[in-house]
Write a structure and sequence with these properties.
This protein is mainly alpha-helical. The protein contains twelve helices and four strands.
């Protein structure tokens, strides 16, 4: 079933509530300047979300650029008559579950997230020796990683089998977070180490590419949202069918020039 704007707002509220249990529906309603019953009806799809409250809701619910874009697209879709919606085609959808701040510690070590994805692979075994061999880490690191995932409920047991609680997990941020910087720095080091492997098999298993370009800086905010959409769609596509390996797709977009000063 296609997600509605009300459902996305509900999920954003639930994400904040996981980190702050006291953040109730009444608390959110007070910040939005709306009656709790009105907000509850929006969550349940009984009332449309008032577009004039978009910016306030996005700010209060701590939505990053990608989440804002999705909400904007859902609202636009709901305000468009059905015949025009059919003509317009598919609405932007994001298959990722957004992590709460309580779950950010899973980024402390690169292999925590890799292990969560390894759980979804065929033949997974929750044994430290097996995990260590598959991820190239120590048995102690493997044991700590598994305990962390279970504690944070990133994985859970269902009908005797371990499962990843959310197939694709996203960590939205509005500013630079130390744990996120550490996570990406670790993966950049892994990418650098991978680049030093010269065997043909290693070359065939990876793709390390880049593109230098002159850009219009005004286009960067829009480009960042678009690139994140591409990452989400790529992850969903390559995860179809039985999985046997875990890959990391790392994306860096940064200036190689200093900030230019406009000539007088």
């Amino acid at each position: 079933m296609k997600q509605t704007a009300g459902q996305q707002l509900l999920r954003a509220h639930e994400r904040l509530k996981r980190a702050q249990p006291s953040y109730s529906l009444r608390s959110l309603s007070r910040q939005l300047g709306l009656a709790p019953s009105f907000v509850s009806d929006i969550f349940r799809g009984k009332r449309p979300f008032p577009v004039k409250h978009f910016e306030k809701a996005a700010r209060v619910l701590q939505m990053d650029a990608l989440a804002r874009e999705k909400l904007r697209a859902l609202l636009r879709d709901e305000l468009t008559p059905a015949p025009l919606r059919e003509r317009k085609g598919k609405t932007f959808s994001l298959p990722h579950e957004e992590a709460s701040k309580k779950e950010f510690p899973v980024l402390a070590r690169w292999y925590f997230i890799s292990l969560a994805d390894l759980v979804t692979c065929r033949g997974f075994r929750p044994e430290p020796d097996w995990i260590a061999a598959r991820l190239g880490i120590t048995v102690t690191e493997a044991r700590q990683a598994w305990q962390t995932l279970v504690h944070l409920k990133v994985v859970h047991k269902e009908r005797g089998r371990w499962k990843k609680s959310s197939k694709h997990l996203r960590f939205p941020t509005l500013f630079s977070e130390p744990v996120v910087r550490t996570y990406h720095a670790q993966l950049l080091q892994k990418a650098a180490a991978e680049l030093q492997k010269t065997a043909q098999l290693d070359f065939d298993r990876r793709l390390i590419a880049g593109q230098s370009m002159a850009v219009n800086p005004d286009k960067i905010p829009e480009a960042k949202v678009w690139l994140q959409k591409v990452l989400a769609e790529f992850a969903a596509k390559v995860s179809e069918g039985p999985c046997r390996e875990v890959y990391q797709l790392q994306l860096q977009l940064f200036p190689t020039t200093t900030t230019a000063t406009e000539p007088l």
